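One-letter codes give the sequence; backbone shape is given numerically. An example follows:

. . .
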Amino acid sequence: MGRGRPGRSASENGMGDPPGVVLWLVLGTETLLVEDAVARIADDALRGGPAAFNRTEGTVGDESVPSMLAQARTAPMLGGRRLVVIREIQKSTVEDLQAFRDYVSAFSPTTVLVLTGTGLPSRGEAAKHSTALRAAFKRKGRVLGFKAGSRNPVEFVVQQVEGGGCAIRTPDARLLVELVGKDLSVLKHEVEKLLAYMGFSGKITATVIEDVCCVLSEAVVWDLTEAIVRRNSGQAMKITHRMLEEGTSPERVLPLITWQIRQLLMLQFCERTGADHREMGVRIFGGKLAAARRTLSTHPLRTDLTMNLLAGAIQDMRGHRAGSRRILEALVLRLVCA
């Protein structure tokens, strides 16, 4: 398991001793556990070799399945293993499924192939191909499944909070689950906001949870964050004032801005270094991910200055020396100018 990634060990997830396994089928609706499993497989596959040369990832529908499998048949460069991860295989056509079966029947022993998604196609002609593909992976590789609800959400919250440097009582962790639901990705998102609000130290109580995990449209906060990154002070202040006038307190807005800007900084780091954004914990998906990449390419963030401004605002907000509203407004303007 990679450093800093909370979760169960490979053996606890039924992965056993993975180095000799080169065919993996990782399925499930519990997205966070699926991604953690894929990340652990990737860590093991590329250990000791240059990941930049030997890692390929693609998505069914965005890239050609035959071209991705051609990468799987290519020998690794300066290392013992090549890794090919193909996502969203639930979108596979009959032709795609047949191509996967053909590869499994004559796979490359030096490539670790990971097929992952919420499941295999189960309708029409594709269903029998899916059944055959699953059987082939069971014979020659490993199949992992992670259904929603397979992990105790309260225990998950406690583990995430403690891993982030804070403490939380089980009843308070249960309160968080009751407020936001049992989806582990959503819970991790909320825990990260709580940790940022606490400055990654101290005890997260029911009062803190109720203050931070408010029902606030994430789309509105992303609009604010995008306006900040694009250096649009007028739009940023307009959105800020609208949230405040609708009754959202500055103490609730600040941790949301902090969490989202930290996500953008991590994404920017990945774009510059070639690191995998999923492994780095970036939780921006779909259209927002593409939009964030476009924005950062033309309006890069200054990491040191941005983090210092956020840390200063969090400290000032606790003391309310200038009034929480003025502190938030000043932060927005300073971030725009950073």
In short: The longest helix spans residues 250-273. The longest strand covers residues 111-117.
